[in-house]
Amino acid sequence: MTYGSGVYYYREKTCCMAETEYTEFIMNSKKYPVIIPTTTKDYKRVKRDLKAILEYLPAKEIVFIGPDTLKEPVMDDACSAGISDRVRYINENQLISFDELTELMRGRLAADGYEMAANSKPGWYYQQFLKMTFSGICEEDYYMSWDADTIPLRPVRMFDDEDRPYFDLKAEYNPGYFMTLKNLLGLDKINKKSFIAEHMIFSRQRMSELIGEIEALPIRGDRYYEKIFYSLDLGNLKKGFSEFETYGSWMSVRHPGEYAFREWRSVRNTGLFVKPEAFSDEDKAYLAKDYDAATFESYHEYSPQLAEIFHNPEYRAEVSAREFYQMLIDEGVFGTAKDGGIAAEGGAIYPV
User: Fold this and answer.
1) Sheet holding 266-267, edge to edge
2) Alpha-carbon gap, residue 296 to 267, rounded angstroms
3) 42-76, pLDDT tens digit by residue?
4) Closest by Cα among 270, 351, 322 to 45
């Protein structure tokens, strides 16, 4: 499978359009809900940039999905920013009960004689299933999932000229995702890159169709997420399923041509050289010359040495953001570079 035309078209369009014209194009595009499933703790990393999500993405509204403790800070911040009419909160348990999901995972382990360990990560699966289940209450044709630790840096077009949403591709590979995909739907990895980016646009209709297909499978369980649990290989429990890889692969096989493909340009390891709370407009402008978004993972270890280089105005005048970031990759700051990502145990590749 190839994904060429979408990539090259996007490059040409963004280069030839004037910035003001392109921004106006984004502002006038059809808009959809942008959902952000998150914990109250992780919400702190996105709260400073709510307006950027509304301005740079095709966002009709931002819908935060999380626990009871998330509602007050979300709505207070939205009110303070003057955007309370475009920010909404949904209690996560209205979509899926976290306690129910935890018990289902416990039951899955018990079926093979195991007890749930502290690192079984029900919350990690939970956020994925919340994104899928939102299709059942969405009133628009599409909805977009956006990671709470990611900040858009400039206007980003998410649909092509034929009104097809983009699958944004990066370098990532986890074998466990595709073992479950094979066990569950009989599908293999069909794209040399990964469907996992910091976001995805879902078709409400197609996601409901996928869920229905899973729930009709002769696999133990009633709900789709229970059947997914019983398709997991327990040796890959910590990285056993990806909603993005599953939906992208399924769409590419069941409904080819409904999405366009392009490479996604983002900085995944921003927290190594700038602190989230100190991410200035100048920092964003520098990165935005080459990248569409910047991510601050919770595990990033801030490096004062890298920060000094990154913030040096003379350095910025001579070296582009892409050259700076590529230098970090080439010098092994993130690990051993492989196939556009970073090599990890078991043949996995992590994104950069």
Assistant:
1) 150-152, 293-295, 266-267
2) 9
3) 898 778 889 999 999 999 999 999 999 999 999 99
4) 270
